[in-house]
Each structure stands twice: as structure tokens, then as C-alpha cells.
Amino acid sequence: MLSKESLLQRQYREPVAVTVPVVGEVLLRYPTYAEWHSIIAAHKNVTSVPPPEVVARTVALVLAEPDGSKMLTESEARQMTDNDCDMVAAIYRAAMDTVLNVGKQVEDAEKN
Question: What's the structural domain count of the chain?
Fold first, then answer.
């Protein structure tokens, strides 16, 4: 049974290794609820291709070091958007399809 102590204790899932086309293997971390919510909110008005700042923030929140910490700061992730579009888009798509799995949540948020 869930206790208050276990509910309020910080719990993190291990990062997930994902093979990303163009890039190779990357580690993706699961965001906290607050991070996940900010990603959903940032995508609320996106109708097709998300703007670079949304992609950069999303990647910065989920790209991980082996210990599960964030690999990039948001500033570093914005610099990443100057790289090859296939590489950046592939990491972004991998994040959206795995640790974020936000397709349905974004659709639901757009309806409200």
C-alpha cells in the first residue's frame, strides 16, 4: 500500500538507452512531473514543427549522463540546434516516443 512517506520520497527511474538514427546510442532520462508538464505546455500551441527553443528545452530535459543527471543545460541545448537538423530532430523524436510518450497528452491539451 502506498504510504505518505513513499509518495513524498523522490523516486527516479533509470535512464533508458535508445538507438537514435544518425546519432547512435543515447541515454534518455524520465522527467519529473513538473518538467513533463512544462514540455506539454510548451507544445500546446504547436501545430506542426516545434520551434527550436521548444526542441532545445525538451532535449535538455531528457538527454542524460550515465548516472541519470542531465547531460546538457538549456543554453547548451540551444547551441545544439545549430547542428545538423537530422541529428537534432532524431534525438527529439526519440525523446517524444520513449521517455515522454506525449503524443496523446499534447492532443488532449490542445482540445482543452
Answer: 1
